[in-house]
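Whiteboard transcription, Tuesday session. T.W. wrote the C-alpha cells on the left side:
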C-alpha cells in the first residue's frame, strides 16, 4: 500500500509549484548537447549549455573515452578507498594539480559532491563559514552539512565581509573560520573579488575556498579564477567541476598535499561512493591536456562571447555587467522573460529564462551561454531572432 500522506504531500506540492509558474518542464535533448541541439524534432541554436569549450562532443575526447572502455571497462568497480582507484584516476589527479598549480588534487564524482565532501571534512560545529549571498546551492548545502555557523555576507561586498569576519573573530566563539565564494557567478557572469577576499583572509586568518565551476576553462587562460589573479599560493581550497568547460563529468579539489591527504581519509563521498568511470577519467585528463597545450578553444570562447555581447548590446538589450562570456539579457518581468524564452524557442534559439528566486525579483532574464563551438553564422542567426522578438515584445 502506498502512503496516503506522501501522495497528498506530492500532489499538493506539485500543484502549488504549477500554480506559481515555477514547475519546470524538462525538455530532453535528442542527440548530443552541441552548439545546435534537437528538441521535439526541432533544430535550435543552443545558448544554454555549460559546455563552454565545446569539449562535450570533441572527437579527441571521444576517442580516448572509447579506448578507456576497451582497456579498463565501463565502471570503476568499487569506492576509491577499497580498490576503485584506477591508474586513470591517479593520472587525472596529477593532471589537475599541474593545471591548477597546486601540490595535489583529489577527484570526486561531481562538483556538487566536492562541496558535500570538502567543506564538511574541514569545518565542523565549532567553526564558522562566511558565505557570499549568491553562492551556488551546492555550497549552501555543503556548509549546512558541516554544521558550522553560516554567516552570509552581501554579494561581493568586501566591507560587509571584513565587518563580519572581524565580528566572528572577536566573538571568540569559533575555532576556525572559512570564507567561501563562487569564482564566477553564473547568473550575472561577474567575477569574485579574490584579491580583496585573500587580503581579508590574511588579516583575519580565514581559510579560503573558491568554487570555480564557471571559472575553470574560462579565466586565467583556462586554469581558472585563482590563476587569473595569480593567487594559487593564497587560496587553500580550489574546487572545480569536470562537467562544464571540461565537458565530461566529475569534480575536484586542488590544494596542498596535507589537505588532499586529509580529504582522502575523511571526506565521505570519496569514502562511500564509487568513482567516475574509466572513460570519464580519461576524457577529463585529455581535456585538461588540451587546455594546457593551447588556448585556442579558450580564445574562441571569448571571441564568441564578445561577438554575442556586442551584437545584443547594439540591438539595445540590457546585458548587465558580465565580465565573462556568460551573457544575460535582462528583461525584468518574470512572465515576460518566460514568454521571451518561449518565443526564442519557437524561432530556433534555445536560451532559458531565469527568474526569482534564482535571481532577485524584477531582474528576470534570458541567459545566454556562447561556447567555442558556435560559428559566426549561428550567432548571427541567434541575433536576428533576438532582434525580431525584442521588437515584437517591446523589449528593444
Ligand atoms: C554547476 C556547479 C556546481 C556543480 O557541479 P557539477 O559537476 O555539475 O555537479 C557546483 N558549483 C557551482 C558554482 C556550479 O555552477
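and on the right, the sequence the group agreed on:
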Amino acid at each position: 500500500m502506498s502512503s496516503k500522506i506522501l501522495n497528498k504531500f506530492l500532489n499538493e506540492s506539485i500543484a502549488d509549484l504549477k500554480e506559481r509558474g515555477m514547475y519546470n518542464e524538462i525538455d530532453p535533448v535528442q542527440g548530443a548537447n552541441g552548439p545546435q541541439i534537437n528538441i521535439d524534432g526541432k533544430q535550435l541554436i543552443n545558448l544554454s549549455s555549460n559546455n563552454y569549450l565545446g569539449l562535450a562532443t570533441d572527437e579527441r575526447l571521444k576517442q580516448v573515452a572509447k579506448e578507456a572502455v576497451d582497456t579498463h571497462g565501463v565502471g570503476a568497480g568499487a569506492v576509491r578507498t577499497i580498490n576503485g582507484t584506477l591508474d586513470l584516476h591517479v593520472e587525472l589527479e596529477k593532471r589537475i594539480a599541474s593545471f591548477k598549480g597546486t601540490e595535489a588534487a583529489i577527484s570526486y564524482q561531481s562538483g556538487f559532491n566536492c562541496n558535500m565532501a570538502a567543506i564538511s571534512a574541514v569545518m565542523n560545529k565549532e567553526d564558522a563559514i562566511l558565505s557570499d549571498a549568491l553562492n551556488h546551492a551546492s555550497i549552501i548545502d555543503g556548509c549546512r552539512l558541516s554544521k558550522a555557523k553560516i554567516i552570509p555576507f552581501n554579494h561581493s561586498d568586501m566591507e560587509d565581509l571584513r565587518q563580519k569576519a572581524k565580528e566572528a573573530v572577536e566573538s571568540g566563539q569559533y575555532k576556525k573560520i572559512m570564507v567561501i565564494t563562487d569564482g564566477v557567478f553564473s547568473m550575472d557572469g561577474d567575477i569574485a573579488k579574490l584579491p580583496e577576499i585573500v587580503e581579508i583572509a590574511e588579516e583575519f586568518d580565514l581559510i579560503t575556498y573558491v568554487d570555480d565551476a564557471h571559472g575553470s576553462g574560462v579565466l586565467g587562460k583556462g586554469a581558472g579564477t585563482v590563476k587569473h589573479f595569480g593567487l594559487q599560493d593564497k587560496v587553500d581550497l580550489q574546487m572545480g567541476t569536470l562537467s562544464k568547460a571540461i565537458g565530461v563529468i566529475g569534480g575536484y579539489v586542488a590544494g596542498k598535499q596535507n589537505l588532499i591527504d586529509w580529504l582522502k581519509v575523511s571526506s565521505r563521498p570519496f569514502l562511500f561512493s564509487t568513482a567516475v568511470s574509466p572513460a570519464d577519467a580519461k576524457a577529463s585528463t585529455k581535456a585538461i591536456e588540451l587546455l594546457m597545450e593551447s588556448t585556442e578553444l579558450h580564445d574562441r570562447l571569448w571571441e564568441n562571447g564578445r561577438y554575442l555581447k556586442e551584437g545584443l548590446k547594439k540591438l539595445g538589450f540590457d546585458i548587465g555587467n558580465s565580465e565573462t562570456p556568460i551573457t544575460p539579457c535582462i528583461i525584468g518581468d518574470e512572465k515576460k522573460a518566460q514568454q521571451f524564452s518561449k518565443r526564442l524557442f519557437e524561432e530556433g534559439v534555445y536560451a532559458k529564462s531565469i527568474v526569482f528566486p534564482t535571481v532577485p525579483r524584477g531582474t528576470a532574464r534570458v541567459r545566454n551561454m556562447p561556447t567555442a563551438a558556435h560559428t559566426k553564422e549561428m550567432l548571427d542567426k541567434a541575433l536576428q531572432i533576438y532582434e525580431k522578438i525584442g521588437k515584437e515584445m517591446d523589449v528593444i
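Someone added at the bottom: The radius of gyration is 22 Å.
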